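Exercise 3.2. Students should predict the tertiary structure of the chain below and write it as structure tokens, then compare their answer with the key that follows.

Predict this chain's 3D structure.
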Amino acid sequence: MKICPHCGTHWEDDCCFCQRCGAPLPPPPYGAAPVPPPRPVYPGAPSGTTYLVFSILATLLGCFFCFPFGLIGIGGIVYASQIEGALGRGDLAGARTAANRSLIFTILAAASPLIAVLFGLLAGFGSIFGWLFW
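Answer key:
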């Protein structure tokens, strides 16, 4: 906490000037941790946490029902983890690109059991009727 040398008002450590009298405030004491600047808020920006949760669930679902193809969801996890870093750098376009790629891999991982079942049914019917995998 800083104290204005001119009027004696108490201010937070991140203030540079007294908002009451306008006098410059002394720097924070040596060893005080600097206050990081607030992260900018981007309206309509993707949420990395939401994409990460869905990517992990889709990967687990895909691996449980169709092991090798469910691993596609790892790409979704990797891209979802890049969203927050891109937003922290102020790269909104990069965050949206990572979110879109995460969504594609997440959908593929979640759909992999369905695709495997459909392929199995197709192969089963084909071998019954003798036109596929005979």
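Discussion points: Residues 92-129 form the longest helix (38 residues). The beta strands are 2-3, 10-11.
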